[in-house]
Amino acid sequence: MILRFYGTRGSIPVCNKDTKKYGGNTTCICVESSAGDIIIVDAGTGIRELGGSLIAQGKAQINLLFSHYHWDHIQGFPFFGPIFMKKTVLNIYGPADEILAEKALSYQMTMPYFPTNLSNLPANITFNKLKKTLTIGSIKIETIVNNHPNHTRGFKFIENNRSFAFLTDNEVHAENGKTPYTDFVEFIKGTHLLIHDAQYTDDIYKKKIGWGHSTFHQVAKLAGDTGVRELMVTHHDHSSSDKFIEENLKEIKRKYHTFKIEGAADGKTRRF
Ligand SMILES: [Zn+2]
Ligand SMILES: [Zn+2]
Question: What would the CATH number be for the domain defined by 2-271?
Fold first, then answer.
């Protein structure tokens, strides 16, 4: 299983000299199974570059999972090259608790916001309700409900006893949250790598309680409680510079020594 990051920024893409290291594209990761199955999570702006790479590799069978439909997780979809190709077979899996994926995507591809409608795309697209668990090729995927203002799912990918958890847009200690902290610990336990939203510092969080995001310290504590070998923080705030992210990573590294700590960055790859 190979994991590649194409977008790790939260809320809105950024492009300036201070965000080059971690990148400015909004959320998109690509997981490739050992047999070559392609599973994408979220269609933030990072999916544009991923689309070009899949076309170059001749990959026409694609699976796309949505954690939720906030703007920063769908805004790259109309610029995902494979949807304009007839040979593409795209299986979309999205939460169906508030709105269907087909509706959410068709709303943003409506005039005057976009000149082409979802229903006119040449690709063969099917829409599926995201269930608690699903299997794609040799990869088993489990999901958990995140604490976020709209229905959002976190994911666990498992192949041949190797696994990682990807929880973006999640407030681990949300007051009156849908999922208690102990359930997140149970869900993540046993995985090798945890990738988790750490959009805020503890100070900034005090003004953003209930916004559905976590802090560097909260997710480091979570990683420690689950026994993972590595933590990667993601959904970097659009106002966070590389320097700011590094300073906060250093701070949690001083406190936690039992697992590796890194910032997720556009272009990074992990093999399992
Ligand atoms: Zn987001
Ligand atoms: Zn969100």
Answer: 3.60.15.10
